[in-house]
Each structure stands twice: as structure tokens, then as C-alpha cells.
Amino acid sequence: MTFQHPVLFWALPVLGLLVWLLELRLPAGDVRRFARWSVRMALLAVIVAALAGPTRERREPLARRVVVAVDASNRITPGAEAEARAIAERLRSQARDVGVTFDTIRFTTKAAAPGEAPPASETSFGATGLAGARLRFREHETGGIVLVSDGHGNLSGVSAAADALRREGLAVASAAVPADVPVVARPPRIVSLRAPRRTSGPFEVRCSIEADAPKRLEVVLRVNGVERGRDAVEARPDGEVLFEDVELEPGLHEIAVELTDPDDNEERTLRRTLVEVGTPPRVVALLGDAAGSPWRKALSAQGLHVAAIKPGGLADFVADGRRAPDLVLADAAALAALPTAAIALLAERVREGLGLLIEAGGSQESWDALSRSALVGLLPLRPLPEPEPPPPEPKPQEEEPEPPIDPPEPDEGPGLKAERRPEEALPITLLLVLDRSPSMIGDKLQMAIEGARQAALALSPWDRIGVITFADDSTLDIRPRSARGASSIPLWLSTVEAGGRGTNIYGALKLASRVLAREKSPILHLILLTDGRQYPDGPIFGPVVKPMRARGVTITALGIGRGARMDQLRDIVQWAAAGQVIPVGNIGAIPRVITRDTMKVAEKRRIDAEKLDARLRDKNAEPKPPEPQEEEKPQEPRPRSPEDAAGPKAPGAADSDTLLPLRVRRAHEALAGLSVAGLPTIGLPRRSEPTYDAAVLLAREDGRPVLAAGRPGLGRVLVWTLPARDPGIFRWKELGRLYGQAARSVIAPRGAFAFLPEATVEQGPDGAALRVIWPPGETQRRLRVRWEGPNGMKDLGVFAPDDGVEGRILPAAPVAALCRLHLELEPGPALPGVSYLVEPPPVREPMAGDREGLAAAVGSAPDALDGFIAALPTGTRPVTVPLWSWFLWLAVALLPLDVWLHRRRGLAR
């Protein structure tokens, strides 16, 4: 027996003395006085002992509990789920026979609470299941946990969690479902077929093919049932077939890809989709001399529909959604004569996605007048007035000219190649890793794709570019290829859509490491763009970035908005050879930031080429005797002109009436296919200077801009400053091709305008689902949707931007049936409809349980779980029993005796 407060016993001597003094004052004999004192002291001692907290200890057996954690991810087949329920029932029966409490939980990425279902997911975390099972144990309980899974989930951290539970005295075991089954070789199959839903020109068709073993296969492309292409490929686990430059007439077309095994003609796989080819882009020409304009002649010759209008009709064309053009072609004189309201409306539509091509070579007066209009903020070139001619210089004294001394040409070699052609000596491989998680829906993903296009335009034809997109999975959408085809990047990425269930940056970097490992370029650069954080948490980025660091890969990480975890991006960049982290607050600045970063890499390439040139020249140089120095003749002072007093001129500011060569200043899709070797010599363009965010594409050798591009908002603007009757450019054979390619580069992709909603159809396991992307800030307009199928027309109702149309299941239809959605904006025009083919639901193939991997991570149960309940750990726990109540009962028993002894009565003396 122990006391919790033994210090109270020190009060007994004091209480005894006080009781003795009180007894001395009462009249009684010594014997009776001693008896009263003794009984009262015993009573006080019992009360003090009760207050001191008397206790004793005893041991009790621990209660036992067994918890079964069942994997409930979407990949678990119905047969595996039934087997998991059978395991749980068998353990429940065994636990009931021996008096063990039984419990069960379900988990995926999170453990479900009692009576709830875990979140739907294609993956699961074993450590999460063990942690959720541990929470079911109450205090002073022991027992065991059984993890039931197929072994194909995320097993990171499972071994550590199981060891921690064993240290707590709990038994941990696993059971794989279903049981191991033999793997049967499956025939080759088409995994995915990708083609643009809408296009207005040539497009590409891509299909991914999987096969369990390498095999020679034939892939046939059919358009509306007619064969259009055939290719023989070697099927691999990640094989891909590409059909390029598929050009069709306007209308709706069925694209089918058929996979045939030459060894077995009966083994065929077919995959179909629909492609809607629109009419050629519409161009509105606002020109002073529309009939004689070379721009209009060139565009009409290339199949573009060009409509000449008067300045008063521009507002009607731009404001009408049914007749809205894709490009406005105008000269400076016509634009300067527009009313203020028409110019403001045109500027607004350009920022929303309309293309604008300005011919500024008409007259200097109209070009100067354009600088005072409301369009000056959209122009990539700022008009400059012509300077006044300087006074004539005094004629210098005639001196006999010295014969010119031509410097010897340097020897050809690697050094000269690095100096004159650094892009050929040191090519760049640029890999863009773009986030396509659900938070990137809308302008974010569109701006990221546009940034990829502009980054490719900033590279040379010798450079290479590739694109990886990721959400919870990662895909290589553009294999590294020459940057010469930069104008096709939006077309290649037209099938990329935001979606998925997370942002797995680790998986994207792992795929990027494998892609860059196959590249041979001396300069490797990676741009990572995301607006979120790594999910699921846990991986360390060092192991996946270190191999890239060994190859010299530099990384630039762009974090969009407040959702991006900048600390995670810094953690990624610190493992690279070099890099930086850039926060991007404005979505519209994404293309500009990506392009500037690419240009920095190209500038570093030039510096490295100069160093390489210097090293090679120093290595190959032979010692030469010093040349004799000539005596310098004193130079006579030249009279100063007013231009000398004003200081040196800026490059390109000097005027020249002579013809100078035209030079390419920057790669751009407007110059795609242009022969650099055949550029003509030209006269004087209109005086201008580029703005801070402009891209000068063509310039005269003295630096005067000829063709410049800009991106105000979502729109594209090109400015041409050379007069149409220039004697040099007029005789150039490539001029018509340049005009047509420049105009097509300004035309925005269909569906890119921010003022119209866009509807798409996604095929899933539950059927076809409607998805509507509304413009940012849209709250007033409504969208009416009508569905047309084999059973007739059905009105799906009117939807508002906040009605939650995402994932709305469309009416059921037979497999391979052609269905169409009719869309009408209220108030507003009818939008282009959406057609789709009903696909069969995906068949989930059973997976063999990875029993060995699961048992190695968690540990297996004895005798296939039959002896798991009997082997549960047992134990006891100490229990403290309080005894103060017994002392109080003893005090109550002594109290009558104390009262009887202190009763007053006469005593003999």
C-alpha cells in the first residue's frame, strides 16, 4: 500500500498535542482522560490516512482488437473486392470465437471515417491504410492489423510504418488480392487516338500502340472509310505512329486508324474519332487602294477569303459574332481615318484574340498620324518623324586616296564555325514541362502553349524543342525535334486538355530525365511551369534531378499565381547545374517570361561560342614575328557638323538612299520556310523604333525594322514598314509566300477568343460528359444546349456560368452512334456545334496481385491468415486501486465510541 500525499502525516504530532491539551481541561480521571485521548487520536489518524490517498496496484489483461484495412481504389477489380470481403469475414469469425474485437476500414489516398467512403482514386497509399487502422485502437488495447491490397499501389513508407507499429506491440500482416494469376500475352492494341476536334488547315493524327512483345505491325489511316495512309511500325510498350499534313475539305470527317498484324489478318483493332474542318480564315481588308494592294493579292491567291470593306463598316464586322473576321488587314492611312469609337472597338477585339496586320509603307504622313491614334499602344513599332536634313558639310581638301588593303580571310575551322554560326556549333535542346492539372483550365494552359510556340520561334533551326505535360500522370506530347516547325506547336498540342486528379511534378521530372538522357546537344535547358504543388507529398527531388545535373541540364521553374509552392520549386532548382525560380503573377505574361528565358539561354550560347572560338584560335595559332609599325601621320582636324555636336547616332538611325540587304533578326512562324540565302536588297522603310516587348523579325542591314510582331493580350499584331513599290522587294520571288505566311501567323486558333464559351465532350467509364469553359468574369449570358442522337432531339436546358455543367452526363446512345450538341448563346449568336462518336466503355483488365512486393514491404500472415488471430500479442497493464473509502468507513466506526467517551456525567473525586 502506498500513499499519494504522505506529507500529511507530519500533522499528527501537532494534532495529538492539541487534543491532549484539550483533554487536560476536561474534568476526569487520568485513566478516562487517556482513553478519550487515545480514541480521538485513532480517529484523527484514520482521517489523515484517508486524506493522504492510500492506493494499491494490481495487473489486468489487455483487450485485443484486429483491424482489416482494405484497398478501395478504382483499379481493384470486382473479383479482388469479393476476395477481400471473404478475408475480412473469415477473420471476423475467428475473432468472435476467441473474444477479440473486430474492425475494418477502407482507404485510397485517405482513410475513410466510420460509415463513409474513401475518395475515389486510381492509386492508394499503404502507409495511409496502416495509419488509419492504428487510429481504431483505443487506449490499453493490443492486437494486429491486416493490410489487404493488390500490391500495385504506392508502397513508399509502408515498411517504416509497419516497423513502428510492431515496436508498439501490434502485429502487422498483409494479404494480396487477387491471388497470383498467370500473365497471358495480349494482342497489340491502339491505346489512344489524338486528332484536333476542330481545325481550318492541315493537321496531324497521332496514335499510341502497345504490345507485350516487339512485333512488326501495319497501321492504316482511313478518312470517311477511304484509305489515306499506311505505315509499318515496330510495336513497343510506348510506340507511337504519326500521320502528318492531313488536309481535308471543310466539313465533318470521320478519322479511323486500323491496326493490322501481317501474320494474322483476322487480328484487327480499330479506333475512330471526328474532325471538323472549318472554312478558310476570314480576312477583312481596310485599304486605301484595295485593288492594287500586294497583300490582298497574295492572300487571295493562297485561298484566304478576303473581303474589302469601307472604314464605316469595320465596326459592324468586328462586333458581329456571326461574321467576326479572323484577321484585319489595314494600311496606316485607313486606320488613321477611323472614328475614335471604331478604333477603340478594334483595339478591344485585338486584345481578346483578333489578328491585326498593318501595312505602314503607304506614306510617311499616314504613318505619323497612326502614332497619335488609340492603336499606338498595340503596335510593336513606334512611328518616328523624319529628321530635318543636316546642313551641307564643307568640302574637304582632295587627297590622293590610299589603295585599299583587303584583310585576309580567316581559315575555315571549328573556331570560325563557333564565331559565325554559334547556333550550329552549340545547338540547344529545350524541354518544356507544362502543368495540365485541373487548375490550369482556361487561359493558363492556352498561355503556356503559346509560350512554348514563342520559345520555339526564339530558337534556331539547329536547335531542338520538346514538350511534356503532366497532371497526376505525365505524357511526352512533343518528342524533341527541330525548332524549324515551331508554327505547328499549337496544332501538336491541340488535344492537350487540363484534367486529372493531382499535380505530380516528381513524375514529370522523372520522364524529363529519361528524355534528356537521349539528347546529344551540348546545351540542355528545362523550363518547368506549374500553378500548384507536388501531390502526393513525400518524394525528394534530389534523386531525379541529380542525373540531369550530371549532364549539365539547367532548370528554370515558373510558379503561376499564389497556388504555386515556391519553396518546392527552389528545392528542384537547387539540384540542377544552374537555374532560377520566377514567380509569374499575371497569366498574360507567361509567353513573354518563357520567351525571355529562352533568349537568355541563346545569349549564353553566343558567349560560350565566343569562348570556344578564342580557345580554338589560341590553340591553332602559330607564333608570328612582330610587324613593323608605321609612323603615324598627324591628322588634320575635320570641321565639326551639327550632327557631331549633337552626339553619336543610335544604330540604324543613319539614313541611306542606297539599297541595303534585308536580314532576319529573329526566328518566327511568320518566316517559316523562308530562304535566308535569297533575301533581297531593299530601300528605306518607314522610320520607327521597336517597343520594349516587340519582336523585330526582319530588318535592314543598318538596323531599320521592316517586319515586327507583338502580342497585346490574346491577339497578334504584325507591322510591315516597307513601301509596296520598293524596287528591291518588288522583284523578290519569295514575297508572295512571305505575305501569306505572315498573315497566317497572325490569325489566332479557332476557339481562342475569350468572349465566347467553349463546349467539349469527354468520354469516360460512365458515358459521354459535357464540359463548358466560360470566359473569365462571365456572369450575364446563358448557354442553351440541345442534344441530337439516333433517338431524336432532346433539350438539355439553359446553363449559367455558375450552374456547374462540369461532368454532366449526356443521354445514352448506342456504341459508334454519331451524336451532336447544338449550342446557342443567350443573348448572342449560335456557337459551333460539337459532334462526337459514342465510344464503348473502357474494359478494366484484371491485374495479378503483387504478393511478393506487398509481403516484402509489410510482411505476410502465418498460414494464409488462419493463425493470425491465435498469434495476436497478449499482455497486462498495471491498475491503481484507491483505498481511501475503507479508511473513511473505519473513521465512521470509531466516531460513536468517541462520542460515548466524551459524554458529560458526574465523576467521583
Biggest sheet, spatial arrangement of strands: 16-15-17-18-31-30-29-26-27
> What's the oligomerization state?
single chain
The secondary structure category is alpha/beta
Note the total helix count.
Answer: 22
Number of strands: 39
Extract low-pLDDT stretches: 400-418, 629-656
What proportion of the residues form beta strands (DSSP E)? 25-35%
The biggest sheet, with number of strands, parallel, antiparallel or mixed sense and barrel status, is: 9 strands, mixed
Q: What is the gyration radius calculated from CA atoms? A: 42 Å
| Shape category | elongated
> Averaging pLDDT over every residue, what do you get?
78
Concise structural overview:
With 909 residues, this protein is of the alpha/beta class. 27% of the residues lie in helices and 29% in strands.
